[in-house]
Amino acid sequence: MNWEADFEKLYPYNPGKAKELLAKVFVPCLDPDGRTAWCDPREGGRVVEIEILSLPEATIPTYWWIAQYIKAEAEAIGLKVAIKEVSGREMNEAIAAGTAQAWIIGWLFGRFPEFLYRFFHSREIRLEGWNEWRVRNPRLDDLLDRFYFTKDVREAMVYAWKAQEILVREVIPWIPTYTPVAITAFDGAIERDSVVLNYAPPFMEPSGFSAFWFNTVRFKGRRFGGTLRYYHTVDISTYHPATYLWASEAEAIFRVYVYAMLPRPEDVYSEPRVPILLRYFELGETFYEGERVYRFTLTLFEGVRWQDGVEVTAADWAFTLLKFGKELKTRRYYAPWVDNLMGVRVVNKTTLELYLRDYGWMDVYSITEFVVLPMHIFARLPDPLADPSTLMHPTRPELSAMVGNGPFALAGLRRADYSELVWNPWYYWRHPDRTVQFLSVTVPELIVEGTPFKVSVTLVDYLGARATNASVTIRLTGPVEVVCDAVHVGGGVYESRIDRLSGGIYSVEIRAEQPIMLWSVDNTYRTTLKVVPYTTTVTSTTTITVTRTHVTPTTIPVTVTAERTTTVARTITSPVTETTTATIIHSEFIEKTVERTVTAQVTRTELAAQTNTITVERTISLPTSETSTLMIPTIVVITERVPETSLPVIIGIPVTMIAIFAIGVMLGAFLIRKG
Question: In the chain, which stretches have pLDDT less than 50?
Fold first, then answer.
């Protein structure tokens, strides 16, 4: 639109001039009621009467008021005008059949004037085409082609102004009455369970199309919760994204399906736009089948799900484009750039490549703001153009076939007068607080190796009530991996006991999932846990008493008795200090007979009893359980030898004696002297 144009000069209104133009075709006459009229001599003097089709006042009052204004002005210059109330379906049928003389209809021009091409280019005179006025003008077609396919926006504006000049001076298939420019600030709060658009008068709710205010709609006094009952302002023909006509249909459709990208609300022409499904894109040139072409590389977000749980992939995008754009040439998916589409390549589940001979400056937005449809649904429908909101899901009887990936889901099949929309818990960009939430989590930061501990979680739902129907899984990943489920113990509290862990650092992940309607919401809590080794230093002092009694020269019984008191001191210095003292009493009795051979003459037959005391110090590591009994084997080795003396000694006294009891300790020997 040329905003510098003087519309009063382009569309001057002069009743006298209008009568002069009418007189060139018709003749003045009187109607059957005797009022001034115009008659058509080419049809036997029939009174000229124009029928204007309009939606009812209760449906779209603005259209009705415009029709009344045109009727009053036309009758002031003698033209008979009749206004006929029709439904949206009846109007569509009359326009398609070419039987409608005039009708009141509204179009949102949007950010870009693509409608100039769609409405008035002769190639759009086709089934499902936009040129309903059947305008054929070769000069206009040439200007519209230049306007569409240039890459320079300023050059496109020049062609658009020239095309509009031809339309105004030579064609005039329509009479623009007004075009509003407005910005609506809306916090989303509503008081009822429904939204009625264009309620007349006054408007009770904002009218118009905005993805953002629908995403924030809520009931006053409530942060979350509720069902949105969306009433139709026209009789609905279809909820199919490829064939819908009315804005009222679009309002519901694009709550369930979403555009791949959205313009920024603060500036609809700014970049980067808001990514919804499409993470980023690239545009370049390459060769395809020996021809130099343009390549669009589109990369989707990973993990976006349809409302039945199936992941959204690049294959869905390719199917939608090829089926509803290339093959069926539907109203909403067919555009000039589709005819230039040479190939589509699905690189992987998130990457798609489009190869085009040419594209227009507006196509960068058309391609990247594409509405993707689920292949696993529409490929299985007997009629891919059937209204999915009236059909059951092919495999999920609790869902309709209208399965999207947007913020709202259709609850059951739509009705004739309204549809119920519920929030989609699997929406990729849902509010971060609209999920099951962790009210409290109890996980120790540090434990001693082998110490059992408990994990406790308290959950609330997105409305703040205790969540008693959730499932909680705990996963610890470190030197070993432990996965366990927490048990609901009441009041939204879930607990799990973990018996023992090896020493090291563990990542703790607690995942909670709660069923919501036909779907579920989930949340994850993450922390770390340190497990320190359970190592104790023990200083053991053992007193061993050895008693020998001489009986005969050849046999010496040896009795070894050990009594030991062990004090265990354990100290952990970081990050907490803990001291544990334990006393362990250990007693053993070992009796051995020591044999020796004496080949000397024994002149002394008495041997004095002798007591030896030794001290043994040992460092050990305690077992993992504090209640274990400490059993330390003790080995005592007793060796007899004959020391050198000044007395005569007969050499050759082999002595062998071993008694087992203490830790590698050499005892002093008993001295045997010749008698």
Answer: 1, 182-185, 193-209, 536-675
Alpha-carbon dihedral angle through residues 14, 19, 25, 31, given to the nearest 10 degrees: 140
Q: CA 670, 674, 675: angle at the middle one, nearest 5? A: 115
CA distance 408 to 419: 11
Per DSSP (E only), the strands in 312-467 are: 341-348, 351-356, 408-410, 418-423, 437-442, 446-448, 453-460
Burial degree of 193 (CB within 10 A; 0-12, 13-18, 19+): exposed
Separation between Cα atoms, residue 484 and residue 480, nearest integer Å: 13
Q: Are 133 and 343 in contact (CB under 8 A)?
A: no
Q: What secondary structure letter does DSSP report for 394?
A: S
Q: What is the pLDDT of residue 245?
A: 84
Check residue 188 and give its pLDDT: 56
Distances (CA, A) of 586 to 126, 160, 632: 103, 104, 8
Q: Are 389 and 410 in contact (CB under 8 A)?
A: yes
For 167-293, where are the alpha helices, taking DSSP H only? 211-215, 247-256
pTM equals 0.71
- Give 553-614 as a DSSP string: SSEEEEEEEEEEEEEEEEEE-SSS-EEEEEEEEEEEEEEEEEEE---S--------------
Query: CA 476, CA 480: separation in Å to the nearest integer?
Result: 8
Structure tokens at 293: 């072409």
Instruction: Report which of 51, 19, 53, 52 is spatially closest to residue 36, judged by C-alpha positions.
Output: 19
Torsion (CA) 484, 489, 495, 496 in degrees, nearest 10: -40
Q: How far apart are the first and last CA of the chain?
A: 138
DSSP secondary structure code for residue 156 in this structure? H
d(CA 203, CA 184) in angstroms, rounded, equals 13
Return all residues near 442 (Cβ < 8 A) that are at least 6 apart. 454, 455, 456, 457
Give kind and range of the element (H or E) at residue 21: helix 15-23
pLDDT value for 213: 58
- Note the residue count of the chain: 675
In sequence order, the 6+-apart residues with CB closer than 8 A to the CB of 543 are 562, 563, 564, 613, 614, 615
- CB of 428 within 8 A of CB of 405? yes
